[in-house]
Amino acid sequence: MTGRVANKVALITGGASGLGQATARRLAEEGAVVYIADVNHVLGNEVADSDASLRFVSLDVTREDQWEPAIDGIVAEHGKLDVLVNSAGIVELASIEETTEEVWRKVNAVGTDGSFFGCKHALRVMKKRGSGSIVNMCSTASIFGGPRIFAYSASKHAIRGITKSVATLSAQEGYGVRCNSVHPGNIETPMLQGVRAIADERVPGSAKAMDQVWVGEPIDVANMILFLASDESRSVNGAAMVVDNTSTLTEGVVPRLEQSE
User: Fold this and answer.
1) Which fold has domain 9-184+221-243?
2) pLDDT per position as a tens digit, 148-168
3) Could you confirm whether 35 is annotated as catalytic?
4) Labelling 252: which of 55, 63, 72, 190 has CA 20 to 30 A away?
5) Extents of the domains making up the chain
6) DSSP H helical segments within 50-84, as ranges?
7) Strands (E) located in the chain
């Protein structure tokens, strides 16, 4: 049986772990040649070595001067880039009152700048062929506020705007490139595990409260991205695809906990 993304070439940032890795493996299962882009060379190469359809490329998404050669190198080898998934992101547990300039710039450099550079250079090569799918990893934090993840929430709101702007430009100009965003709720990844640990250290009981809200698995998000990467979603452009089992409708944010003495 032909895979759902057979013969497609994909680049996934943050592909060495978490949602990026799950997505890379899922696209590879369905026939794509997948490039894992990451700054973690050791883990990235380990993941790539585990599957003949996976390849590792070193890429610091915060540096535009690394994006162009990375994408052009893939095009030189395969003649095209069909799919870009901007999955790289970091989170810092801090309200606006606690967010320093350093934290703000670090979080936005990876999330906002990385998505901007990725969209810019993927669009540059995809429009030449008149086709392509860009998927930007957002979050339910871009649907409601993130009081304790201020910089992260702001970055995801920006990425949502980037997505819609790229999608509408492509539609107006007839580029044939689709750009959509995926908005996961709490997903069992190393990032969530790290947030749990820090939150529990600051306010005992936080992790338990977080787990009262639905927690999904990486495959749940990977399957959504597979759909957007495939031709099955050929008319889906500029959409915000939520993967949260209604948590944004029924739960909202984690309830406030009293600080321990």
Assistant:
1) Rossmann fold (3.40.50)
2) 899 999 999 999 999 999 999
3) no
4) 190
5) 9-184+221-243
6) 64-78
7) 9-13, 33-38, 54-58, 83-86, 132-137, 177-184, 186-187, 215-216, 240-243
- For 162-200, the pLDDT digits (tens) are 999 999 999 999 999 999 999 998 777 666 555 655 555
Task: Report whether 88 contacts 67 (CB < 8 A).
Answer: no
pTM here is 0.89
- Residues paired with residue 80 on neighbouring β-strands, in sequence order: none
Of 107, 126, 128, the closest CA to residue 118 belongs to: 126
- Active-site annotation holder among 150, 152, 175, 227: 152
Torsion over CA: 219, 225, 230, 231 (sign): positive
Mode of pairing for the β-strands spanning 132-137 and 33-38: unpaired
Which run of H or of E encompasses 28? Answer: helix 18-29
Q: How far is CA 76 from the centre of its chain?
A: 25
